[in-house]
Write a structure and sequence with these properties.
Strand content: 25-35%
Low-confidence stretches: none
Largest sheet: 8 strands, mixed
Shape: globular
Bound molecules: zinc ion
Length: 153
Amino acid sequence: MSAGELPWHGGCRCGQVRIKVNARPLVTMACHCTGCQRMTSSAFSLSIAIPSEGFEVTSGEPVIGGLHGATRHYFCPHCMSWMFTRPEGMDWFVNLRATLLDDARWYRPFIETWTCEKLPWASTSAIHSYNALPPLEDFEQLLADYARFFEEN
Ligand SMILES: [Zn+2]
Ligand SMILES: [Zn+2]
């Protein structure tokens, strides 16, 4: 299933906050960490790393939730959906919750992280699995591999 033409649109559960994506994703991720388990009330989180310049909130005003720390988790102020994260010290990308897209059928996690904390039965179709996070020296290759994977899918 192809992702279709940019821009992509999406929003929270109630529709008060709407977002627009106008850049190709850098990578897609499932995270099994216990923090994501709690914030999603589920087994793992699904996200898409999007270059910051290609991400825009087009209506509504998301508020900070989650840990209220240096990494900023943004939520809809009305329905409280977790929408996106701006990770500490990495201003060049935004981590959007994948299933907020109006059409997320193309979505598939390319990597999965923190499998050391995963629920024993939880599995994804991610191509690369990491016990914790991918080592920094792997990033360049990973992003290049994902760009090719995105083209082909
Ligand atoms: Zn909402
Ligand atoms: Zn996580």
